[in-house]
Every structure is written in structure tokens, then in C-alpha cells.
Amino acid sequence: MPTERVKVLIIGSGPAGFTAAVYAARAGMKPVLYQGGQPGGQLTITNDVENYPGYPEGVMGPQMMVDFQKQAERFGTDVRSGMITSVDFSGWPHKVTVDERTEIEAESVIISTGASAKWLGLESEQRLNGKGVSACAVCDGFFFRGQDVVIVGAGDTAAEEASYLSKIVNKVYMLVRRDEMRASKIMQQRVKNAPNIEILWNTETSEVLGEEEVNGVKVKNTVTGEEKVLEAQGFFVAIGHKPNTDIFKDWLHMDEQGYIKTIPGTSKTNIPGVFATGDAQDKIYRQAVTAAGSGCMGALDAEKWIAEKEVEMQEA
Predict the structure, then answer these.
(1) pLDDT (tens digit, 9 = 90+) per residue, 110-127?
(2) What pLDDT, on a 0 to 100 scale, did the predictor assign at position 107?
(3) Among this protein's residues, is 136 annotated catalytic?
């Protein structure tokens, strides 16, 4: 298997990965970035991005990621297609395998693999994704101001997003599969007290309706089997996210959901020289701008670590 040595290896190509690349490249560290299975990350399935600073007219998600990549490449980032299929963090330099056929020896690794929204698995849900179907109320709720929307979920995230939407839209239908919610009591109370949130218990989604955009949602009562159509222009799925961190689980400390644990205030993991950024380690904010900020942290932490390692090796 051919082997290559790099100073900084960045895994992932969302806002965190490309921001890390910009900083690492400008510091002269010649970063190599592998794009992974979804080049550009979650923003490539987002239509309009209106809340990222510097785009006063808003920007299409895919275009924004093209801009990020061009900026990273301008400073000399080596952007490559390919999937990281395994890692070995038992020694230094760190060993990383690409597409099971190339080995990279990396002096430092910045993980920016992001997270993926969990979906219901409906054909109509995927077909209308970005056309009224969304997995982020904070990102897309503004587009439905004054309209009616449906949100699916029963945990704290769903309750929080329903409350957020209730301040913007006309009405929120909240679909809960069982006769109770998993959300904390305070979040449940907030939802129940909102006059324009209607909770539909024992209810699941049969189909999202619409050709070019969402115009309704067919739902089914899980107890009676009765079906009905809710008129709505937006459909939000809030059943959780899964961090894309499985290949690191034998090496890095994670929480029960698979988010990589970092030393507070840094991007440092439990393995020296391995840094985690963006949604792979952030389950709270999950915004492009916070991911970009953590990507900057990852690059600065990596730069400092490599400088200290070089001094250590010279003294040895």
C-alpha cells in the first residue's frame, strides 16, 4: 500500500473542514483535505442560507461551499476526493487509510466529518428535501413566516424547534408517535403553553404532499388507523442527528450518541495531535458559523501542537 507523509490532514469538507484548511494553509502547513462521501457537507442539501455573515443577499448552500473550497485552494490546500476508511492512532505519526488503498502518515489530524440528520425514510420526504422539507428549524424557519408547518419529533430538540417556529409561523402541528413526549418537563410545558402549537398524539407521517413544494402532510393515528391531511407549507424532521464518527470509536472518547469529546475551550481530543471540529463534536449549536469557528480553532491548535512537537524532536 503506497504511503504519503503530510503535516496536516483534514477529514471532511463542510464549513469546519474548509475553515481549518484556510487557516492551516495560510500558516504554511500545506494541508491535505479529503472531502468524504458528501463533499461540502450538509449545506449542499440546503437551498437558501441567509444567516451566514458576509452574504447580505443570502446564498445557495452548494454555492457557499464552492466559495469555501476556492478560498481554501487559493492558499494551497490540496483538496482530494476520497473516503477515510480506517485510522490507527496508536502511535505517531497517525496512520489513516483512504479508500482502503492508500495510507497517509499524518503529523496532525483535524476531524471535520460532521453529522447527518436522521430522516423518516419516506420517498416524498427525500423528493421534497429543500423544497419545504427541512431538518433544521433555526436554519429554515424564517422562510415559512406566517404559514402553517408540521414538525415531527418528541424530544428536547423537537420541542425547542417547535417553540422557535411558533414565534415565526402561523401554526405548528407537532406529531408525536406515542401518547407521551421524551422532552424534559420544562420543554413540554413550553410547547403546551404556546397557543399556536397543536400536538397530535399517537400520530405518524404517511406522506409529505406536493409536487414542486410542500402543500400538505398526510398523517395517521397509530391507535385508530384514521388518516387525515394537514394543510402545511413546511415539514420539519426533528428526530435527531447522528455524528459521522464511527471510524474513530476505537480511539477517541465520545459521548453515548457518538459525538467526539474535546477538552473544553479547545478542539483537542484524548489523542495528542488529533483535533475534532464542527458537528462531529457539537450537538448543541450545529450552525455553519459555529462549525467554521471551531475549524479555525482546530487549525490553530494543530499549528501550535506541531510547533511544540518539532521542538521536542530537535531536543531529543
Answers:
(1) 999 999 889 999 999 999
(2) 97
(3) yes
**Mean pLDDT over the full length of the chain:** 94
| Dihedral, CA of residue 169, residue 121, residue 213 and residue 49, to nearest 10 | 60
CA-based torsion, 111, 60, 215, 188: positive or negative: positive
Active site residue 67: no
Distances (CA, A) of 220 to 55, 73, 141, 176, 206: 41, 50, 25, 11, 6
Amino acid in the structure at residue 229: V
Looking at 48, 136, 156, 296, which residue is catalytic? 136
Question: Is 296 among the catalytic positions?
Answer: no
Fold held by 3-116+241-315: FAD/NAD(P)-binding domain (3.50.50)
Q: Which residue among the candidates 139, 279, 282, 301 is catalytic per the annotation?
A: 139
For residue 69, the model assigns a pLDDT of 96
Whether the per-residue pLDDT at 47 is higher than 80: the answer is no
Rounded alpha-carbon distances, angstroms, from residue 66 to 70, 209, 264: 6, 32, 31
Please give the model's pTM, rounded to 2 decimal places.
0.84
Catalytic residue among 140, 279, 282, 301: 140
Give the integer Cα–Cα distance in Å for 286 and 165: 17
Q: 42: pLDDT confidence band, cut at 50, 70 and 90?
A: confident
Q: Taking the domains of the chain in order of start, what are their residue ranges?
A: 3-116+241-315, 119-237
- The pLDDT of residue 246: 96
CA dist., res. 15 & res. 112, Å (int): 9
If you average pLDDT over residues 245-272, what whole number do you get?
97
Q: Which CATH code of 3.40.50.720, 3.30.70.260, 3.50.50.60, 3.30.1020.10 fits the domain covering 119-237?
A: 3.50.50.60
Alpha-carbon 56 to chain mean position: 23
Q: Is the pLDDT of residue 196 over 90?
A: yes
CA distance linking residue 300 with residue 20, whole number of Å: 8
In residues, how long is the chain? 316
